[in-house]
From TrEMBL:
CDD domains the UniProt entry points to: beta-trefoil_FSCN_BglX-like
Protein name: Exo-alpha-(1->6)-L-arabinopyranosidase
Function: Catalyzes the hydrolysis of a non-reducing terminal alpha-L-arabinopyranosidic linkage in ginsenoside Rb2 (alpha-L-arabinopyranosyl-(1->6)-alpha-D-glucopyranosyl) to release alpha-D-glucopyranosyl (Rd). It is not able to hydrolyze alpha-L-arabinofuranosyl-(1->6)-alpha-D-glucopyranosyl (Rc).
UniProt source species: Streptomyces phaeofaciens
One Gene Ontology MF term: carbohydrate binding
InterPro entries the record matches: Actin-crosslinking (IPR008999), BXL (IPR044993), CBM6 (IPR005084), Cellulose-bd_IV (IPR006584), Fn3-like (IPR026891), Galactose-bd-like_sf (IPR008979), GH (IPR017853), Glyco_hydro_3_C (IPR002772)
Signal peptide from the UniProt entry: none
Length: 951
């Protein structure tokens, strides 16, 4: 039968998932029902394939955008996250997030590898300044961190009520502050620290409503990997009605078996992670086959159900719908991206200016316009990038900024590095061949090096040895880590073929190939390449790294860095020493720092500058705090690596065009001895961060000076309707317009448990003209005065007096008032009714929290010495308690005593249990009555989960 050519075929109905008038939930239900099980399983990998029969495009989770679009080529580069934290300016950070999201959209329009699911910001708290990734966080304080993170996510999300410009994912869940053994170490986090500190920054940001999901961290918390954390369901998903997407960190799903040995098979691990709440598996790069095979295996073995797969896919689809993927005609963000605009360039400079913190000033700053300046230091003519930076389209170094602001004729420069020749045992010298200048090569129109063409090249000629050598800049970054640079700025680097070439514009990469170490050997030194671990050899076909035939070099010093510094500083009016770190060396992802000290070479340069000219200003450009001796210095400034406008911003502050108003987002300690162990996550017990630190910091949290002065007055406090309302005035008493950051803190005056010495309740960055006054007010919910009461398993506001402290930093308090809150009185622990969870202790020594089972719960175990103590205060044993029962695994003895008295019960497991998760109940007589403090001693390799009482 022939079809009538004049009859139009009916248009197939639009499937409900394509109908923009339906709620997202109904559309997701429809699409989910149309997908086959195999298709849904394929969505579990980071790179979800297209489903062509439904017209569903491929999708990838993950686009790095910490302070600009990263890894996708040229983009606007804003200050590092810790620098954005130093602005104490959420509104500025919101605008930065908005600019970044617009660049993501613009770059997505021309490159579909750019993802709209952005993995930022990092809200891990900067608990310990030696953490290698300090640059990625905002602050050591949860309140400030959540304020800045919320602002950034709002900018990334956009303000359309339905469709998101990008979908931000918070990193890294949870209690993650060490790179040393980061995939195998466990953070022991007791309930108070968990709820008052580590969860808080995540919670307040999620509850603000602009977060699409989170990424679990590599580490374990209380003995359990974060990728199977019950907190994902018990905490995270309870904070919001939104479908939050949980994306694994790269390679972490495999770590569950391969490095952590937490599960025996990858099928078990995949099923456990999915059940815990991981929705997207970032593993094996773009190859999804292994994750898909593991998920299918888990389904086949009954470890996983299709309903659990559906739950994960539903959350992925929720993000995709919110990003407008299925409504291209209704997406308000389609085609509206903006890239490298004048507004973005101006914003990058504004952010860099606001991030500068003036730590000390004896009056030398700001500099007069006719000042003769000597600029010295390793960072003086650098604009450093970090692992999560985009490629610079514009750059400004401190030296360039000062040239521009003061004129090149008034600025002298000396880098201050040692310049050396490397002499071989044969009497020849290492020589760097000249860089080619062909059209596609390594030099731009003005002869400058082209970084994009230099990095990783293997077509350049390798180094050779000859009768004349090339003078190299030897830069010592501390701990014996060196870089070597040719006179034209190219760094010596080792490519995959093992040859040594001058082929990098900067040190960088996941494995840095531009770092070396000089090791004493005989009458000279071996030059060991740190990226490969191999020594440098001189061969007939060029200089390379190899295990055999290492060359023994004599380091011939042509000029010491101190000599160059002295030469340019003696006649200057002021010396500006620019010191700090390279973000790829000695403190970065995968590598923690070992000391707060400046590298010895930079200390020598600083000493030489001060000796030549006492009017010396130290400008620290770094990703983290340092312990320095500020005494002889006229001024000290700090800024994080400030992105493309760093140099112009710093020059503007030095010249007084901008009055500095950055504030420290974390404590600067005076010495390494002030720091706890890197792996001690108990901020309360170890007295960490400004909240609990009892020593004298080098510079306190919130510190920062100005070129103006400010007075505070008229403090008033009212309480009622569940809030405290605090108001005061700030007046600019100086002679120039400037920003001030007014800070509001509290402290419990007479707490029954250890509480913070200061705790930030709120802050405001304001701009005031000379003589102007601003009236500020804060409404603080009374819940902000609560602590986590382990006896009741929840927050409690303790009755009593609370100080409200107003000023310019956590230690610069100008106004003080005290309020008395009714709160909720303490109640003894009802141990006869509920017993005691071992992890709910008040104090401990020599113990750590571990996992009770692989799925949920906590237990406590002694650490290395095999002996630990727990203290539980105010336990109500009633009129008569006659027995105790402990739930334990392993072997050893649990000792019970009260009020510091003798052991009243010793409960022993003689034969070890079958494994750490095989618990026994052991009973013993325990005669006690009334309300007492209970002490529990743990002896031997056991895990205590619970203690019950009877009578």
């Amino acid at each position: 039968m022939q079809r009538d050519p004049h009859v139009t075929a009916p248009t197939p109905p639009t499937p409900p998932f394509r109908d923009p008038h339906l709620p997202f939930a109904k559309r997701i239900d429809d699409l989910l029902a149309r997908l086959t099980l195999d298709e849904k399983v394929s969505f579990l990998h980071q790179f979800a394939p297209a489903v062509e029969r439904l017209g569903v495009a491929a999708f990838r989770t993950g686009q790095e955008a910490l302070h600009g679009v990263a890894w996708m080529g040229p983009a606007t580069v804003f200050p590092q996250a810790v620098g954005l934290g130093a602005t104490w300016n959420p509104e500025l950070v919101r605008r930065v997030g908005e600019a970044v999201s617009k660049e993501v959209r613009a770059m997505r329009g021309r490159d579909d590898r750019v993802g709209l699911n952005v993995w930022s910001p990092t809200v891990n708290l900067l608990r310990h300044p030696l953490w290698g990734r300090n640059e990625e966080g905002y602050s050591e304080d949860p309140k400030l961190t959540s304020a800045i993170a919320t602002a950034y996510t709002r900018g990334l999300r956009g303000d359309h009520p339905t469709y998101w410009r990008t979908a931000p994912v918070l990193k890294h869940w949870l209690a993650h502050n060490n790179e040393t053994g980061r995939d195998v170490t466990s953070s022991s986090v007791r309930p108070r620290v968990l709820h008052e500190y580590d969860l808080r920054a995540f919670r307040e940001t999620v509850e603000a409503g602009a977060v699409a999901g989170v990424m679990p961290a590599y580490n374990l918390v209380n003995g359990r990997p974060n990728h199977v954390s019950p907190y994902l369901r018990e905490q995270l998903r309870a904070w919001t009605d939104e479908e939050l997407l949980v994306c694994s960190d790269a390679g972490a799903p495999s770590n569950l078996v391969d490095s952590e040995h937490y599960f025996d098979t990858h099928e078990e691990a995949t099923a456990a992670a999915l059940r815990a709440g991981v929705d997207s598996f970032t593993d094996h790069g773009t190859d999804s086959s292994k994750i898909v095979a593991r998920a299918r295996g888990a389904l086949g073995q009954g470890l996983l159900t299709e309903a659990e797969v559906d739950e994960a896919v539903r959350r992925q689809l929720s993000v995709r719908f919110r990003l407008g993927e299925f409504d291209p005609l209704h997406d308000p963000h389609a085609g509206t991206g903006a890239f490298d605009t004048p507004a973005h360039r101006a914003l990058a400079r504004e952010a860099a200016e606001q991030a500068v913190v003036l730590l000390r000033n004896d009056g030398v700053l700001p500099l007069a316009a006719d000042t003769r300046i000597a600029v010295v230091g390793l960072l003086a003519d650098e604009c450093k990038l970090d692992w999560y930076s985009g490629t610079l389209m514009h750059r400004s170094t401190p030296l360039e900024g000062l040239y521009e602001r003061f004129g090149a004729d008034r600025v002298e420069f000396a880098e201050g590095v040692d310049r050396v020749l490397l002499k071989t045992s044969a009497g020849t010298f290492l020589r760097v061949p000249a860089a080619p200048e062909d059209a596609d090569g390594t030099r731009g129109a003005e002869g400058a090096l082209d970084p994009a063409l230099l990095a990783g090249r293997t077509d350049l000629p390798p180094l050779t040895a000859g009768t004349t050598g090339t003078e190299l800049a030897l830069v010592d970054w501390g701990e014996g880590v060196l870089t070597l640079r040719a006179p034209d700025g190219r760094y010596l680097s080792v490519a995959e073929d093992g040859f040594l070439r001058a082929s990098a514009d900067q040190p960088g990469g996941w494995v840095v190939q531009e770092t070396f170490r000089l090791e004493p050997h005989g009458n000279g030194h071996l030059l060991r390449h740190l990226g490969t671990g191999r020594p440098v050899c001189v061969a007939a076909d060029g200089v390379r790294v190899a295990e055999e035939g290492p060359e023994v070099f004599d380091v011939v010093v042509v000029e010491r860095g101190e000599t160059a510094v002295t030469r340019v500083t003696a006649e200057a009016d002021v010396v500006v020493v620019v010191a700090g770190n390279d973000p790829h060396i000695n403190g970065r992802e995968t590598e923690d720092r070992t000391t707060l000290r400046l590298p010895a070479h930079q200390e020598r340069i600083l000493t030489a500058a001060r000796a030549a000219n006492p009017r010396t200003v130290l400008a620290l450009v770094s990703a983290y705090p340092y312990a320095i001796e500020p005494g002889p210095l006229s001024a000290v400034l700090w800024t994080a690596h400030g992105g493309q406008a760093a140099g112009s911003a710093l020059a503007g502050v030095l010249a007084g065009d901008v009055s500095p108003a950055g504030r420290l987002p974390q404590t600067w300690y005076a010495e390494d001895a002030d720091l706890p162990d890197l792996l001690d996550y108990d901020v309360i017990g170890a007295r960490q961060t400004y909240l609990y630190f009892e020593g004298r910091p080098l510079y306190p949290f919130g510190h920062g000076l100005s070129y103006a002065s400010f007075s505070y007055a008229d403090l008033a406090v009212r309480t009622g309707d569940g809030a405290a309302r605090v108001s005061f005035t700030v007046t600019n008493t100086g002679d120039r317009a400037a920003d001030e950051v007014a800070q509001l803190y509290t402290r419990a005056v007479d707490p029954s448990v250890t509480r913070p010495r200061r705790e930030l309740l709120g802050h405001r960055r304001i701009t005031l003209a000379p003589g102007a006054t601003a009236a500020l007010s804060f409404e603080v919910p009374l819940s902000a005065f609560a602590f986590w009461d382990v006896a009741r398993g929840g927050p409690r506001v303790e009755p009593g007096p609370y100080d409200l402290l107003v000023g310019g930093s956590s230690e610069d308090i100008r106004l003080r008032a005290t309020v008395v809150l009714d709160g909720e009185p303490a109640a003894p622990r009802a141990v006869r009714r509920h017993g005691l969870s071992a992890a709910d202790f008040d104090e401990q020594s020599g113990t750590e929290i571990v996992d009770r089972t692989k799925a949920a719960g906590d237990a406590v175990t002694p650490v290395a010495a095999g002996s630990g103590e727990l203290l539980f205060r105010s336990c109500d044993f009633g009129a008569r308690t006659t027995g105790a029962t402990v739930t334990v695994a392993g072997s050893g003895t649990v000792e019970l005593s009260v009020e510091g008295g003798p052991t009243l019960a010793a409960l022993t497991i003689g034969t070890p249990t079958a494994g750490p998760y095989h618990y026994l109940s052991v009973e013993a007589p325990f005669a006690v009555d009334g309300v007492r403090d209970l002490r529990i001693g743990l002896r031997g390799p056991l895990r205590l989960a619970h203690v019950g009482f009877s009578g």
